[in-house]
Records
---
Amino acid sequence: MYSKGLAPLAAATVVTLTTAFALVFFYAPNDADQGFVQKIFYVHVPMAIVALGGFVAGGVFAIKHLRSGDSSWDMRSYVAIHQSIILGLGVLVTGAIWAKASWGHWWVWDEPVLVSFLVVFLLYCVYYPLRFSIEDRERQARYSSVFAITAGAFVPLNFVAVRMAESFTHPRVLSQTGGDLPGDMRLTFLVALLGMALLFVTLWKLELTAKHASMQLKKLRNRARVAA
Amino acid sequence: MPALPLDEAGKYVAGAYVVFVALILIYVAIIAAKIARIDRQISELVSEDDE
């Protein structure tokens, strides 16, 4: 059901990410201001964008679940949020490494980009205890969907708040004028972003396939028990 | 072509990319273990059915 097209998608992910990393280290020039350390940007920023996109997608799937009552949409929402949390963890760690390398501190509390991302991440960490504290499957799916929609709406707000923030310690990559990245850096960034998005979709489909197989197996076991 | 400097900056850049790769590998390993478990359980179910 979910495994359709998984193999070519996985192949496309591997090719795109390999190309992206080759571009990062052998094509994109070193940043004039930060030097070699700026290479972290090509993994950190795409990961952040895809993670935030995944949270929003989780909200959209949750809307579909509430509208249709189809539990497969709840599963899609859950897996999207789960993957985004994993990527979010990666964003926080790679961001801390980048901050230490360029600012001399692992974390800066008065920087709105960092703190707002941490707030979003911690908000979604609440999703797990909420979801798994409810035993009844239908209620679990319904409450989780409500959470996913509410939290998903908060993500664009986070983005706007960061834009409106006055501090400019954290570099702004994308602006209304398309950012000020030179062409070779922009190409590298876009390929890395595409690779990260493909990776997200591939792993999302992979986890959905595993979950679906597990549920089918449970059904078969129940049938076997009844038959016995 | 820019060189790969293995100085102070190189350490941080390598660290960031290793974190990314490690996250993905751990995740894929967990999913692979889950799929292997499902496969084993299906085999058990089939052998129970055969008996």
---
Amino acid sequence: MNAPDAGRSRSDTAEAPAARSVPGTSATEAALRLLEAGPDAATAASLEACVRCNLCAESCHVFLADGESASAPAAKVQQVARLYRRHHTWTGRLLPGLVGARDLDDAALADLVASAFGRCSQCGRCTLNCAVGLDPAAAIRFGRAIAAAAGLVPAGIWANVTAALETGNSMRIAPDEVRETITWLEEDLRASTGDPSVTLPVDRRGARVLYALNPREIKFFPLSISAAGQLFHAAGERWTLTATDFDITNYGYFAADDGAGREIARRLYERAEALGVETLVVAECGHGYQSLRWEAPEWLRRTPPFRVVSFVEVLDEYLTAGRILLDPAKNPARVTLHDPCNLVRKGGVIEPQRRVLRAAARDFVEMTPNREKNYCCGGGGGLLAASEYAGRRVQSGRLKAEQIRRTGAAVVVTPCHNCIDQLLELNRHYGLGVEIRTLAEVAADALATSPTR
Amino acid sequence: MTLPSGILLAAFAAAALSLGRARLGIGSVRVRRFAPRAGDAGAGVRYAFTAAFLPWAKESASAHVVSYLAGVLYHAGIFTMLICLLLSLAAPQAPPALAGALAVVFGAALAAGVGLFVKRLFDVALRAVSVPDDFLANLLVDAALAAALAAALVPGAAFVFQLTGAALLLYAPVGKLRHMLFLVTSRRLWGAYYGRRGVLP
């Protein structure tokens, strides 16, 4: 009996991008070196212990949307495990046919890219629901790492990595452009609020809080910065933005290139240390929070001398401490909440956004399922930057669209700019007719008189 | 010691050595300790080995109740069979008072094992992720369960049970049966991950 190929299709293989050249070595050799070095012990345990029961299939939004066996998490793990077995188990070396072991070659690499990038958003819902208690997402991420070693990360994702490494942010925004945008926003904010004392400080020494941004906010969603500024001002916070190394996004994390991830995170950590802040507040961005709160300390092997928190948690703290007052009557429309996987299921920030939303909106309804069990929107894992998989990304968002529609909400709030981009696209594609907003925007609209002002 | 008992003892030793070597082969688990914790890793681990097994704890169980129950019966039978196999080194024949209960446990486990084999054979998505090892491992376990059932009911069949059990133990380090070892590590890490991050329990 030959080992089946976990539903591989020709179109999958054709989708795989060409390898970027790695000086002095072939792509396959570089990948082979990483494979032979092996994953960490935790990931190896998952690769060893997967019994291919396939009970995780219905936990995956990609599988539920396309119904293809290759989209089931077990099939995606299998793409990696077959290579692992060939190089790390004696049965894989001696009896490859029995255990489905496979040599790492160009075809295997193409399948790996199509599977680990094209069919997985790294949302971790399979991990939460694995009957055995494994981490399929980590196993698939090791597949991404092998692809990264071969220079086969989808070009759009890799472009963000190189931009961040070369310029300090993934959208190549110069510090002067940041300052100009913030200055314009500050003037606009003073005019719109009628409050000349409101400021959007940049690189202010002595600030307690550094509020670090997603570059997309500066380029495309500046009003979310204004909203955060309003809320910091209302809370009487000593805060600052920064014009250099401000970027919370980390496409090294998506690419499973931990070296790049470490370097990108290190810059923001050092910026926060240079400014001497007590708290690094991560703007509304799921993977930014994940990489800065949970991964960066492990990558850098040190605990930062400041707190790393999401802006969602900060808002909740202000609300609980009475530093801001919110009037739900100012947001009368029905609101629902999408849970970003990296912030909620993998990050543990589950209730703060709900407390804020209950205080800020009159009619907040949960989608089903919710919290850590919520479905991925389909845009995670860097897939928004991988245009070659756009069709499947939008298709895999069908479950999210159905969840939203069932709530009858007019507004969908999500504390993640990646999710916002995907939800905007789902809104158009599936004709949902909803408004997509950040938590800060909804909270800022609900601001009542503040006890600190 | 009889010859079948000697073979069984050697098989136990070979399986233990080979599985131990495989566990050492993946190295030590790197403890994530630099990011300040948001919850209790210990509570997560306790949850992983208790309530997380309940049928409503995970979609993989709640959405597949029949497979979940088959899995529970199958593994309950396997654990019982392994204990009986170990005890057979001292007393090849199970006490007659337990024969009926053991027959029920082994019979149910065998039925579950055959059911899971059939499912793997005919479920298109499941077959797509299967390799020959999946079928062979299931057949070996089923054979050992059948032999255990026979040994419980038929006096004198203990040697068949011991030899079949030895074959199973020798195969254990070869393929998917290795999960008996690695799932303990992985499940502990699963609980620690969610516990430390304050996601579960």
